[in-house]
Amino acid sequence: MNALSHPHRVRIVEELRDRELDVNSIQEILGISHSAVSQNLSVLRSHHLVRERRDGRRVIYALVAPPLAAWLMGGLQFLEGQLVDAENLRAVAEQVKDIWGGPSGG
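The structure corresponding to this sequence follows.
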């Protein structure tokens, strides 16, 4: 899903897991410009992942489906584990090549 292909959007989803936030709060948390937060929220809104509500002049954002955050974080942890396993396997292969005197890859 392209909407979740950017780290800022993933972080926004995680931050909205258990709470609602306005743009200024998200900006402070992520440490990025107001414009960048708005652009990322626009992508998430266009894919119906976040909803907004008005509170006076403030616009408050929340996840449409809060379990999405848990699913996303679980998926990222799984992928991270796969990457670690791949790196470990690559390191072992390099050690074996060194021991056996074979050419190193890379």
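The chain has one domain: 1-100.
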